[in-house]
Each structure stands twice: as structure tokens, then as C-alpha cells.
Prior knowledge:
By secondary structure, the chain is mostly beta strands. The chain is built from 1 helix and 22 strands. Strands 7, 8, 11, 12 and 13 form a 5-stranded antiparallel beta sheet that branches. A 4-stranded antiparallel beta sheet has the order 1-2-3-4, with no helix packed on it. A hairpin with a 2-residue loop joins strand 5 (65-66) and strand 6 (69-70). It is globular. The mean pLDDT is 92.
Amino acid sequence: MSDPNKRVPFHIQNENTQRRYLTGIDFDPESLQVVGNEWWIGDEFGPYILRTDHQGRVLGVIEAVVNGKLLASPDHYMQGRLPNLPDQLGMALFDVRRSNGFEAMAKSPDGSKLYPMFEGPLFDAAAKSVEKKGDKTYVRINEVDVASRSYTGKQWKYLLEEVGHVAADFQMLDATTGLVIERDDSSEGQAPACPNEPRTDCFTRPAGFKRVYKIDLSTANADGFVRKVAYIDLTRIANPKRLAKLGPNEANFVLPHLGPEGLAIVDATHIVLVNDNNFPFSSGRVIGKPDDNELTLLDIRALVEAK
């Protein structure tokens, strides 16, 4: 990607070059939707939504201004270099934790709306903690109107099953239901598991929580929390025809990676998942060996039909 027409509202790494290519210092692109003749890209740093043409040239940058409030991380261009967590300064100067911006961004079937979803919970200044309901944290889904290139102010809340979980991807099935990858953020691998002490010949933190949830936006409760309808456990995927090409080809197939982070709708009853292999640091399949990027095709008929 590049910014030859200087649409990015801050100095980029290649500011004084002719072609002005963007780098990983400028943005952290994590999600992408094709909108008409443009690409709309969700970024974790700002967080921002970048609009580019099909050659990757920036057409504009949309700030996360929701109901008149700018939701910014410490890496937003209006911030200085700040700590990862707001309360480390004793005051809330930003709402989005570093690297917890728009990991996921779904699109409505008619293409009129986008739904950027934060990877982790926002900071609640009044409570001096991240946003919670009871003892669980939650993340927010926002609505963006494509025509006006702005946030509508409409939001939903997605309740995470455990503190420390993150939302890794989000795609819509139809106008009201969608699929969300929810995962833990500290485990990978499956077997062999270590017997309670750290060793180098086994997985010390075997993959625990990796799921694809079906959610329903239309039946959110009065507090805005979406309903979780059903889920696929990615550590126990039914494999009756023994179709696995990687890992043990057994009755239950496992995606043991730290980060299953990509979800694509193939057709009415199939999705493809892909892992972020964090090359060369993640080793979920074979101890000590960097993971491949794996594409996994799943039949989700039962999930689609779940009510």
C-alpha cells in the first residue's frame, strides 16, 4: 500500500519519498472488505479504517469517532508514546489497549454497512478497569455507514467467555447473524501435553479455547449484548471421513494454533479458517517447528441451522 496523494493524516515512515509506501510502523492491517471499487481495511494501531483503491493507494482514513467520542489507542497519531494500559499513568488518556483495535470487520450482505469489532475490551474510566459484565469482559461491535463513511453510533456488545479471551475475526452470514472467532491468547499445541512442569519435549500450555460462535445481532438484549446461538469447538472438529492433510487424521481434528484469526464464507454451508502462524514463533503442530499457514475447510450446516 502507498499514500502518494498524502491522504494519511500523520507523518509516515516513508514521508519524504516519492512513492510513499506504507510500512508496519504506520498501520497494522488486520481485516479487509471489498466495498464497491475500494478496499476498506481495519487497522489495530489507531484504530482506523483505511480506504484504498485496488492498487493499494490510500483514498482516506476514517477515525473511530462513535457518538461524538474518539476511540483511540496509545498508538493513535494524536497520542505520544504511552504505556500499554491506561491506568499505568493514573488517568485515562485513551480507551483502546495497544494492539486491540480492529482485528475483525464484517460487511452486511448488501454492502451498505461495515461492522468493525475490537479485538479486546475498551477501558472503562469510571471503573478504572476494562469493560466488564460481572466477572467477564466484553468487546464492542460498531456499525459504519459506507455511503457517509462514518460511524452510525449503533453498537453491540459481545461477551467473552473468559477474561483474557479475544475476538479474532467476524463475518456476516446474513443480515442479522454472523460468525465470530473467539480464542484464548496464551495457548497452542495439543499433544503431547506436559505433566505439570515446563519441558521442551511437550506443550506446556496446550490449546484450550478456540471456537467459532454463531451470533444474532437482531436479538440483542436491552444492554446491547448479542446472543450466542451455538459454536464449533476448534479443538474437537468432527472428522468422520478422515480428510485431514495435516496433523493426526483421527475422528476429532484439532486446530491447535495460538491464533486461528481468519474466517471466510465460502457458500451457504461452508467456511474456511486460517491461522496466524506468527512466523517463526508459533509451534502448534510440531514441537520446536514453526507453524505453516493452514487453510481449513469446514462444513457448518449444523451451525447455520442452529436457532
